[in-house]
Amino acid sequence: MIEWFQQNWLLVVVPLALFLAFCIIGLWARRVLYFNLDKHLTRSGWGGRDVLIQTTRGPFFFWFVLLGLYVAIAFSSIQDDHKALIIKIIASVFIISIIWLLIILSERLLSIYLSEYKSVERTAKHVMTALRSTLIIIGLLILLDYWGWPLTPLILLIAVVMLVVIIASRDAILNIFSGFEISASRLVKEGDFIKIGSGDAGYVTDMGWRNLIVRTPDQHTIVIPNSKLVRETIVNYGRPLKKAEEPFHFYTRLSLKELTGLKATNLIALVNILKAAPDSIVYYHTHHFLEEFQYLTPEPANDFALWIGDALDNPVLSEKLANIDTFEFTSLGSLKAALISVIEQYMAENPDIRFTQAERDFHFIKVVNVIAPTSYFASDLREFVEVLRKITLDSLYYHVFESRLRLQRRSNDFSVWIRDSFEEDDLAEKIDNLVPYTTTLEGLRSVIIQLIEKRIK
Amino acid sequence: MNDTVISHYKTRLEEYQPIVGNNIIDELKLLGSHLAGRKVQNINSTFSGGGVAEILARIVPLLQQLGVDATWDVIQGDDAFFNVTKKFHNALHGRDESITTDDLDVFMETSRRNNESMALDADIFYIHDPQPIMLIERKKSLGGKWIWRCHVDVSHPDKVVWKFLRKYVVGYDATVFSSPEFSQQLPSRQYMISPSIDPLSDKNREISQSVIQSVLDKYGLDNGKPMVVQISRFDYLKDPLGVIQAFRMVRKGIDCQLVLAGGTATDDPESTQVLEEVRENAGNDPDIKILPIPPGSDLEINALQRAATVVFQKSLKEGFGLTISEALWKSKPVVATAVGGIPQQVRNKVTGLLCHSVDGAAYALKQLLSNPDYAAWLGKNGHEHVKQNFLITRHVKEYLLLFLAVENPSEIINL
Lengths: 457, 415
Fold this sequence. Notes:
The complex is a heterodimer.
Chain A: H1 2-44, H2 49-74, H3 80-115, H4 121-146, H5 152-168, H6 170-185, E1 193-196, E2 201-207, E3 211-215, E4 221-225, H7 226-231, E5 234-236, E6 248-264, H8 267-276, H9 279-292, H10 303-310, H11 315-322, H12 332-349, E7 362-378, H13 381-390, H14 393-406, H15 413-422, H16 425-432, H17 441-456
Chain B: H1 3-8, H2 17-20, H3 22-33, E1 39-44, H4 51-65, E2 69-74, H5 79-92, H6 101-117, E3 124-128, H7 139-142, E4 145-149, H8 159-169, E5 174-177, E6 189-192, H9 209-218, E7 227-231, H10 240-251, E8 257-262, H11 269-282, E9 288-292, H12 298-307, E10 310-313, H13 322-329, E11 334-337, H14 342-345, E12 353-355, H15 358-370, H16 372-389, H17 392-407, E13 412-414
Helix pairs in contact in B: 3-17, 4-17, 5-6, 9-12, 10-15, 13-16
């Protein structure tokens, strides 16, 4: 053995020396390279500096070790076929180490990058799994190719499988990437109040890897696919405004006309019936036009004025009755008294008119009101405005007209809630001062929305 | 229940959404949820023909979609029975009819047979028109709420017939009329529900210009000349001769054409006579087209209304006159007489022009033909008026409210 070594010592020492030389070069290169890299990355302020350096330092040296082994084996006296096998093994280890490094590095960098976006945590896990699988497959294919295995059928199989997977989950893939785009752009965050192109609006309660979850004021949960969201026009109103202790619950009022069978053919009969009429009759004949002629501005006068003008052909008394400002009254009793007073005063001044036969009868009608809670709630002014856009005119009518006059609350429900919940006395008063009888219900809705929007802008 | 009739008209509630809006449909669903599972049995005298059958065929499926267990049945009767009820119908409209004791016996005998044979099972029994009115006699044994829906103009009913029917009307928990003029002095509560049109029916849905043109070509109508159209059956009460007279007054100064289109009934000899008189009166006037249209020609009526420059409804007496709502829905300016339910649809100078005479009709027609912008404004208002007040969704809503009202006597019902 010693004799063999004395004769062939160069065959051992040279590869060993080469191996050690590469190890030393590796240590030196790593030191120089990582020193400069660290300096450069520190200057750039890149968040992945530590991960990149810590993750690649070890493998960098390891690759020099592998290189040293490779060169040592190449210069050794090992039989050629053995030498080739060992070199292949070294190359394979190199390929595996590269793939392993790429997997570790990408996972760590992605973790750092996505840690800022809590909302896509689940998305990130799925992306990492997909990335890891892809890199392993690529590494496997390179190794197989390197070892001379026939790859064409395998690649075809993988391609077909990939194609099927991509087609089957194209929406999911699209949603995932759209989710990244939404998160990265930071245009929408959990807790924001958003409104999408379809008109739906609400608070973002969850940002998933495929969908955005929005809770609407009518307590519905809307699931919006991320891919749809990136194509939509989104209005983001930002974080919630001050919340009311008690949310505003929107009600609606639906009415059915009830015929009383009572009819007047002249003024005296009209007054006599009116005197005994319940509030619901007075209410119907002074308010129904608001709903039946919602498209008209200005809206027609009350039924008494119209009948006296048309059927009794008495424009003077008609004008006097039309000029009674319903908004001034806080009870139907006082409104009724005012109507009767105007007619009686006119009859006193013009006694001949009392029994003049009308062209057509005045039929007294009242309404049965069905009041029902809707599914709409508003806990702040932003939600309130959005609900106001959506509710029916019946609902608007209930909160503005019914509460004020028929239910004798002296103010509309909106103003009461705004005043009590937010101490927004100025806004509440502005809404309270709107005269709802001189505009259409749609016009009224629009003005209230404008007032609130101006306040919360 | 005739499922064939129902399924023929089975329109999904959601199909009305683009027309009336989401919130209206939501409101119907809200009301429906409070009546879910409630059995409502509608009963009238026929599954086909006439406005009542048409309304029920469309409304019953919508009520079902809203969760109401609505059904529809008809009573049985022979020719003798229906001849008597036809007399009742005319008499309630105010026409002179000689109703004999035999007639009343026929009516009561058939009604008794129906009372014995008809399967009744509901929470609310909704009885339409006078034919099945005597079913109320089973109220005592069946219980439930009973509503009588009167689709007839009873503003000036024949006293004998009304007195006879009133005995049964007073047994109902509620009565429903189409117009305030029809209300009566009754001990029970009376509600007003106006008829409606279905915007998705062949008579009212949007149709293409090519379909309109094909109908005009079929009847040899000139698309380039202003067209005045009255759609109604040939009946003296629709005053077709008055329409021709008014048209001739206007044509002296304005080049235009008149179309009188409508049906004749084989069992109504009067309509054939009226048609002959109208033809005779029109003579060979090339600008006057008399078009007897067979029943079911809804698409043709739709096309004629859409092609019209002005729509006429110069009735001397009218129940409700839904042809006006049909015309207004198509944004057409309307000239109509202020009778029956017409003033509910035509508010003078707002959604159309009302008249009271041939001269008034001619004057209104001249105004509209000479002022297309004004005519368009009236038509636009008319469309909105119908949208808010005379569409089937409003009708369904009021049916639901009625069911709630008969079960809750209060003026304010909190759900």
